[in-house]
Design brief:
Blueprint (H helix, E strand, L loop, with lengths): L8 E2 L11 E8 L2 H13 L4 E4 L5 E3 L3 E8 L4 E5 L3 E7 L4 H10 L18 H4 L2 E2 L2 E2 L4 E8 L4 E6 L20 E10 L21 H15 L17 E2 L1 H10 L5 E4 L2 E4 L1 H7 L6 E2 L2 E3 L7 E3 L6 H19 L8 E3 L4 E2 L9
């Protein structure tokens, strides 16, 4: 196992929180053969290994005593059928660039998912979504590889167990790595304007490009660029609660925004955090963003992962005590030797 003194390669530019931590080794890989060779080499030495795309959904707490593989396995293949565009995209492709490419080439459907940070490989893990759309609406399969045996498996959509910001890949296939995904986009385009922020747009004259630009503008206003203020976008999921608790809270907070999902109440985590007066709150250089309370920022880009975690835990406990709702973090938390279960830090009191 690597010792602490061996960590000399900076990950500051490889995670969007801009946390100044280091790893023992960092390698960018561009093909599957290189990925498998590296993984096998270091696993045989019992060194911890993790894979990053663009580091947009991780919080590093300490130096990582192992190998960080930066996935740059790229490639995109398109097959056209009578009713659909079928896309096969390798996991190292940038998600937003993929969305831009489809709009430019008149392949429509992904416009609501514009400007979501990260690489294609992480998209199905979180079942990324925004503005009334999510990847499960288009995903047909996810290809994964066991880097030890080099065995590739195709997981069809039905077996991905997609849920709100959730999928089977969070819990199963721990020894596998996502290498590509398949998407199918209908040639019969219907605008998705169900989300509140999009209801100002009109069905009769809206185009995919208008929606794409509109959403990009909204996201730029709500989420600061990571190079200016380090962040990972939304820190917590929007909670889904029972009708009983939802109706109880609605009697107390008549202005509480919500949507109904299978009779359950889906609430705005940002609104809950606002009600606890955290908007603009700052501690040790870590701030709840003044334009969107779901975003925790490394304001001066010199705070530690521990500092960010402490503020997140404070928000978690305060919201929990006030509303009886215990928020769930979206991000992955990485320690010295790999991912740490968030339940270690976020516990009901």
């Amino acid at each position: 196992m690597y010792k602490k003194k061996s960590c000399k390669y900076s990950l500051k530019k490889l995670n969007t929180f801009n946390i100044n931590i280091k790893a023992c080794k960092i390698v960018k890989v561009k093909d599957l053969k290189q990925l498998c060779l590296l993984w096998n080499e270091y696993k045989k030495k019992k060194f911890p290994c993790i894979i990053l795309g663009e580091g947009s959904n991780v919080l590093f707490l300490k130096n990582f005593y192992g190998l960080v593989i930066i996935n740059r396995i790229k490639g995109m293949y398109i097959i056209e059928s009578k009713k659909y565009w079928h896309l096969h995209i390798n996991s190292g492709e940038n998600w937003h660039k993929l969305v831009k490419f489809t709009i430019k080439n008149k392949i429509y459907g992904l416009e609501n998912l514009a400007l979501i940070p990260g690489c294609v490989g992480s998209a199905p893990i979180q079942n990324i979504g925004a503005y009334g759309s999510s990847i499960q609406d288009f995903c047909k399969y996810v290809d994964i590889i066991d880097p030890i045996s080099k065995k590739i498996r195709r997981i069809n959509k039905e077996k991905c167990n997609f849920k709100y910001r959730d999928s089977i890949f969070k819990y199963s296939y721990k020894n596998y790595i996502i290498i590509s995904i398949g998407l199918s986009l209908s040639k019969k385009w219907i605008p998705n304007l169900n989300y509140n922020d999009l209801k100002k747009l009109k069905y009769n004259n809206v185009t995919p490009k208008i929606i794409f630009n509109y959403i990009c503008n909204i996201r730029k206003k709500k989420i600061p660029h990571p190079k200016i203020h380090g962040n990972a976008g939304s820190f917590f999921k929007n909670p889904i609660i029972s009708p009983i608790l939802g109706l109880k809270l609605l009697k107390i907070f008549s202005d509480m925004p919500f949507t109904l999902e299978k009779n359950n109440f889906k609430l705005s985590a940002g609104w809950l955090i606002d009600k606890c007066k955290f908007k603009g709150y700052i501690r040790n250089g870590v701030m709840v963003y003044s334009k969107q309370s779901l975003v925790i920022i490394n304001k001066f880009n010199n705070s530690s992962g521990i500092d960010i975690l402490k503020l997140a835990i404070k928000i978690y406990n305060t919201v929990g005590k006030k509303f009886g709702i215990w928020l769930e973090p979206e991000i992955k938390i990485i320690g010295n030797y790999g991912e740490i279960n968030p339940c270690v830090f976020f516990k009901k009191k």
